[in-house]
From TrEMBL:
UniProt keyword annotation of Acyltransferase present: no
Pfam family, one: SSF
Membrane topology classification: Multi-pass membrane protein
Xref: PROSITE patterns: NA_SOLUT_SYMP_3
Keyword Membrane: yes
Main location: membrane
Keywords: Cell membrane, Ion transport, Membrane, Sodium, Sodium transport, Transmembrane, Transmembrane helix, Transport
Top-level taxonomic group: Bacteria
Organism the protein comes from: Prevotella amnii DNF00058
Name of the featured protein: Sodium:solute symporter
Length: 477
């Protein structure tokens, strides 16, 4: 019951924020917040939106199988954010776009543009569903199953709550709710760490020393080129994950485009990009502390999935009711800051890119509701197919669905050739299929297992496909 009360209280605050920010709302407010958002609020809120509830659950448990090697990927993230800030943001601001895929239309043509937007809708709908699935399954498992409430109702209720507080002002509301949600997430994280240190009777400096000396604190892997944790594979993948999941993602870029000018947007991008390393270091450190906690309490460390390391200690009540409250606040804040912005960006892309009716307020309201209903469907679909670590599930989806976006943008930025526009949809479909075939073949006959580098390979296949059916031109980018 304590979790239900916590979530209701949390939503009441969100609705109050929504009410205050929704006065005189129109499509310009919904899509771009009239480009009046303070860059520091956008930057702080983006940390929570980027981290998501998946980080809360999955990253601490990653130390069980991968030690702290995820930080190698985070180092790549920083370089990726710099690339986005100084390469992609100037293009978007110069073109004064609402949808970032407008660049594709101007550079490569209408069919490539529609294909990019369609792939974004598929990619964002599926990856956001994975993220939101976290909070739904936790509520179901630890609270609502006790009241015999079906999972379908849980999902529908939570998504429709998000729809209610975003349906009027969209991105304008999210700039402020994301700031609040990120603050809640970090307060929850610090309080959980504080509680674990209290149980273990460790000072902060003693805890740091124990973590450093623990074998699971290993960060860098240089000596095994076949390992999925090899530094260069993780580092380069981190760069391209950010370029694709932020720079080529309408959801993430839409908030940055609400800043008043390019200078503010660059400050916003670089600020929250640098914050990723300390933020994820805290989550990984918590993972090692939780291992100490299980040993201290003479409990078996969960072995079913790495996600269970965090879930059993917090939502499972091993650390007490107050930690359960902290965890609920943190994961709800992280999950909802991702889901609400995803819903808003999906509405934007459909109205602006697919229907070309960005001034039709009636259409925007209908589409926003339909996207919420589709979101519910995707979450329920994922429940039946999920069998892996949630963070890995997201990056696997990204590798297959965002790869064509990477190829389209790379071709537009780094060549001056004209594509056969009508062939772009076929190239975008064939490239992920080739990636799947290649991955399956190599894993069947060698010991090499593809990781997040599939994203780069997918983008390369798309790029080469466009090149094969292109011709020289003198287009000025």
């Amino acid at each position: 019951m304590i979790i239900v009360i916590t979530i209701i209280s949390y939503f009441l605050i969100l609705f109050c924020v929504s009410k205050l920010t929704s006065k005189r709302s129109d499509n310009a407010t919904f899509f771009k917040a009239n480009q009046k958002s303070p860059w520091y609020l956008v930057a702080f809120g983006m940390i929570g939106a980027s981290i998501s509830g998946v980080t809360f659950v999955s990253v601490p448990g990653m130390v069980l199988s991968n030690n702290m090697t995820y930080l190698q990927t985070c180092l790549g993230f920083v370089i990726g954010y710099i690339v986005v800030a100084f390469v992609l943001l100037p293009i978007y601001f110069r073109l004064k776009v609402t949808s970032i895929y407008t660049y594709i239309e101007k550079r490569l043509g209408k069919y490539t543009y529609k294909t990019s937007s369609s792939f974004f809708i598929l990619s964002k709908m599926s990856s956001a569903a994975v993220r939101f699935y976290v909070v739904c399954i936790i509520l179901q498992r630890y609270v609502l199953d006790n009241y015999h409430i079906p999972f379908v109702f849980t999902v529908a209720f939570l998504v429709l709550l998000i729809w209610l507080y975003t349906k009027r002002s969209g991105i304008h509301t999210l700039v402020y709710t994301d700031t609040f949600q990120t603050l809640c997430m970090f307060i929850a994280l610090f309080l959980i760490i504080y509680k674990v240190l209290g149980v273990l009777d460790l000072s902060l400096f003693e805890a740091i020393n124990k973590i450093i000396n623990d074998p699971h604190s290993r960060v860098f892997v240089f000596n095994d080129s076949l390992s999925g944790q090899n530094f260069w594979k993780q580092f380069l993948s981190g760069i391209f994950i950010v370029i694709v999941m932020t720079g080529l993602d309408q959801d993430m870029m839409q908030k940055n485009l609400t800043c008043k000018d390019l200078h503010d947007a660059k400050k916003d991008m670089c600020s929250y990009g640098l914050a990723f390393i300390p933020a994820n270091l805290l989550f990984l450190a918590l993972g090692i502390l939780l291992m100490f906690f299980y040993n201290y309490m003479h409990l078996a460390i969960p072995s079913s999935t790495t996600d269970e390391l965090m879930l059993k200690a917090t939502a499972g009540g091993l650390l007490g009711n107050w930690v359960m409250v902290f965890f609920t606040i943190g994961i709800v804040a992280a999950c909802f800051s991702s889901a609400d912005s995803a819903l808003t960006s999906l509405t934007t892309i459909y109205c602006v890119d697919i229907k070309n009716r960005d001034n039709d307020e009636s259409l925007r309201k209908r589409v926003h509701l339909v996207m919420a209903l589709c979101f519910i469907g995707f979450i329920l679909l994922f429940r039946w197919f999920n069998s892996t670590n949630l963070l890995d599930a997201i990056y696997t989806l990204v590798s297959y669905t965002y790869g064509p976006l990477l190829g389209f943008f790379a071709f537009g930025l780094f060549t001056k050739r004209t594509v056969k526009d009508k062939l772009s949809p076929f190239i975008a479909i064939i490239s992920p299929l080739l990636c799947y075939i290649l991955s399956t073949f190599i894993e069947s006959f060698t010991s090499y297992k593809f990781g997040y580098e599939l994203l780069m390979i997918n983008g390369t296949f798309t790029f080469l496909g466009l090149w094969l059916f292109s011709k020289k031109t003198t287009i000025v980018k």
